[in-house]
């Protein structure tokens, strides 16, 4: 598999996280947002983790989507516990042989790793301190899909515990705990930082840079090295195609494989075939959203419509919302009816709606907003069923 290394970005972020980048605030927590399938996880695991490890930092990575059925707080705690385990073994042995039980070791020796999984804010803080002290190095905790933590009270407690650990362990001149949180939806991540009561109030959400022309140059170099017949590659057109694919490498690479295949039915330059494939991909994405929407019951459609229209200002049960639903479906809608519709939207696989532990709702896939805006601008909203209605009179 071809993977483009993003070493420069990784080393810049590693420096910023350690508080060595002048005016950056990353040492207080780095919040990175980028759309779905644009390479967040690959970057965090493949580039950022090694860059931090090379700087002598102990890295704990946890993906809160890895197991959606498990509680996010528990997943975080377990990841820290796992990283702690090997160190505790060594420390326990050394402590015993050196009679260290008598020393006062800042409260980490009593950490019971089997209990770290049972979310208790204090235990998380202790576990992080213990990891830091036993490893003798700063710790970086990378939480992928961090917005998922806000979907359960235990996840919220875990986030507050992490904030507290950060405040206890870091001093302006000495950073011992680095936090990196990523997510595909800026609005959801914002809930971690934007209000006074949010755990990381005061931090900013950064847009994680998308793969760009450098990625295309990397691929073009490979193609030119392997296929002399295609030299020179039209990098500009290839980059336009990549933009058309929404900067999503997986879909782009798939199409590239086909365009370069001897079996490709496209006559002419492969770069143009890629532009074509990008357009096709956009159409497929849109028709998928359209058929998802059309497959919903009328009230579910109305609720989703309202959510797309209002974004973060969406309130499911206020008088205006209920009036809006009524206007769309033609009958009175009560709050329990709207709630059932919301639950149905959440329960679908894949889910269309996201809900925080505080009862805030958002669309699961933020690209739906763009689809909605574009259709609105083109006066093509709401999507209409393409099926011709059944003719019950038997007349054709
Ligand atoms: N630097 C890269 N070079 C080549 N391919 C990449 C690169 N980064 C990501 N990809 C490919 O793009 C796809 C999506 O990557 P990844 O899972 O990292 O994205 P993501 O933003 O975390 O997605 P999701 O929103 O689903 O979590 C993967 O198939 C991966 O192999
Ligand atoms: Mg990911």
Automatic annotation (TrEMBL):
<keyword id="KW-0067">ATP-binding</keyword>
<dbReference type="GO" id="GO:0005524">
    <property type="term" value="F:ATP binding"/>
</dbReference>
<dbReference type="InterPro" id="IPR027417">
    <property type="entry name" value="P-loop_NTPase"/>
</dbReference>
<keyword id="KW-0547">Nucleotide-binding</keyword>
<protein>
    <submittedName>
        <fullName>ATP-binding protein</fullName>
    </submittedName>
</protein>
């Amino acid at each position: 598999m071809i993977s483009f290394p993003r070493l420069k970005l990784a080393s810049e972020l590693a420096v910023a996280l350690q508080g060595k980048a002048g005016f950056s605030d990353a040492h207080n927590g780095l919040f990175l947002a980028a759309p779905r399938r644009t390479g967040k996880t690959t970057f965090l695991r493949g580039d950022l983790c090694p860059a931090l490890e090379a700087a002598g930092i102990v890295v704990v990575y946890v993906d809160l989507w890895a197991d959606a059925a498990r509680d996010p707080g528990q997943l975080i705690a377990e990841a820290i516990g796992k990283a702690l385990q090997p160190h505790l073994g060594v420390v326990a042995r050394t402590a015993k042989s050196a009679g260290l039980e008598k020393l006062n070791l800042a409260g980490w020796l009593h950490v019971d790793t089997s209990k770290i999984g049972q979310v208790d804010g204090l235990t998380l803080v202790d576990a992080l301190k213990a990891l830091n002290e036993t490893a003798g190095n700063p710790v970086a905790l990378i939480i992928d899909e961090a917005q998922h933590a806000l979907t359960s009270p235990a996840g919220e407690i875990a986030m507050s515990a992490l904030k507290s650990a950060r405040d206890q362990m870091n001093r302006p001149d000495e950073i011992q705990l680095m936090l990196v949180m990523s997510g595909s939806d800026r609005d959801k991540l914002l809930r971690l930082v934007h209000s006074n009561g949010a755990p990381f109030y005061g931090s900013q959400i950064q847009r994680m840079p998308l793969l760009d022309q450098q990625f295309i140059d990397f691929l073009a170099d490979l193609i030119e090295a392997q296929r002399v017949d295609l030299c020179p590659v039209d990098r500009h057109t290839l980059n336009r195609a990549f933009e058309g694919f929404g900067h999503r490498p997986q879909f782009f690479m798939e199409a590239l494989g086909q365009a370069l295949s001897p079996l490709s039915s496209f006559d002419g330059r492969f770069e143009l075939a890629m532009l074509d494939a990008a357009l096709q991909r956009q159409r497929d994405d849109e028709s998928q959203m359209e058929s998802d929407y059309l497959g919903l019951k009328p009230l579910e459609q109305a609720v989703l419509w309202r959510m797309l229209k209002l974004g973060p200002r969406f309130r499911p049960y206020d008088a205006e919302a209920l009036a809006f639903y009524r206007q769309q479906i033609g009958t009175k809608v009560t709050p329990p009816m709207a709630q059932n519709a919301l639950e149905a939207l959440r329960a679908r696989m894949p889910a269309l709606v996201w809900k925080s532990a505080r009862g805030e709702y958002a669309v699961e896939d933020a690209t739906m907003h763009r689809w909605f805006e574009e259709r609105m601008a083109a006066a093509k909203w709401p999507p209409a069923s393409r099926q011709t209605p059944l003719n019950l009179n038997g007349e054709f």
